Amino acid sequence: MAMYQKNDYGIRETGVTASVPDNDVARCMYYLKCVCSVIECSDADILRYTRYQNYWALSNAEDETVYKLCRLLSPDKFEDKVFFESEAMCGSSGNNFYEISQVQNRLGVVGSILIAGRTRRVTSIMTYKMSWMRANYIYPMNRLANRFNYERRVVLALQDADCTIS
């Protein structure tokens, strides 16, 4: 990893405004789209799960695939490599994107990242606010875990069915 300390204020934002449906699968698909925006991701089998406006067309099995992909591509794999928590760099948005050549002087940025045994070229970085991460990854993934994890569903059902006989 190359680490530079020089401040360069010629940074140009490359992000665009997104309108994500208020649905856990759609939000996770949007998260996957953000991942694919910062790393070289040309696999059609993954890219089909980034079309978050079409979340409603997925089957239950495909919803579960989205959940599993998000678990595999979790934020901890990208934090301080291509994802950076930075309120200042997000401005009024929940997240923002920058081309690597624009930020190498301000942040430690890696040139490639190993995902599932394959080296992926880094194409840009994403900055985010923690509220964005909660809304588009943490909370939806917790709810989808309840939906797709059988053991977790059983525990929750037992907790809901807990009654006291007096």
UniProtKB/TrEMBL annotation:
Q: What is this protein called?
A: Uncharacterized protein
Tell me the organism.
Adineta ricciae
